[in-house]
Amino acid sequence: MKWPLNTLYRARLIEVSHCPEPTRAGMQSATKLARYRAMIGIATFAAVPLVVTVVMTNRTSVNAQQEIRPTVESALAADEELARSIRDNDPQGIERLLDKNWAVISTAGGVGEGPSIFPNGIKSGFLTRKTMELSEPRVRLYENIAIVTTKLKTSGTLQGKLFDVTERQTDVWHWEDGGWKCVLTHETKMQNN
């Protein structure tokens, strides 16, 4: 059905005539709405750099966590830290680095088991180190296992008797929970050079 032009015109007039006149309150609402929209725009503009910063920080944090993995350098550092703890007669430092199933093969061929062997010997005065120098490190990494062999010059007292020996020592390290734990130490006495 076609509407006559004159009917459409009248409908528009009726529609317009029923529109309320702009009031002061209506104008204030429109101004408030415009201000609100401007504040939202400014807040959005200010929030974007913040969101980008948070996302980039999270990515950096994830990358840092991914970088905490076994490396040749970290295995050697753990071996050096253990040597320092032994040299300094630090029972807690030694125990912290030894696995609960740690064992040592001594230069005489004896086997000692348990991470408390050295710390208990130090605490009781049975063993006291004066020196402990590592040199000629050789490190091999096999995923989460590291084998660190060093030349070791050490001196001190054992059962009240002085000792001064040079050894080749091999420590086997296991990477676990983001750090190294020594699971085996094998000592071989060398002739002094």
Kindly describe this structure.
- The chain has 193 residues and is an alpha+beta fold.
- It has a six-stranded mixed sheet with strand order 2-1-6-5-4-3.
- The protein starts with a helix and ends with a strand.
- It folds into two domains: 7-67; 72-190, Nuclear Transport Factor 2, Chain: A (Roll), CATH 3.10.450.
- Helix 3 (72-87) runs antiparallel to helix 4 and helix 4 packs antiparallel against helix 5.
- Residues 11-17 have low confidence and may be disordered.
- It is built from five helices and six strands; from the N terminus they run ααααββαββββ.
- Helices cover 46% and strands 36% of the residues.
- It has helices at 5-17, 24-67, 72-87, 91-97, 117-124; strands spanning 98-105, 111-113, 127-142, 145-158, 161-176, 179-190.
- The chain is elongated and about 95 Å long.
Helix-strand blueprint:
Elements: H1 5-17, H2 24-67, H3 72-87, H4 91-97, E1 98-105, E2 111-113, H5 117-124, E3 127-142, E4 145-158, E5 161-176, E6 179-190
Parallel strand pairs: 1-6
Antiparallel strand pairs: 1-2, 3-4, 4-5, 5-6
Helix pairs in contact: 3-4, 4-5
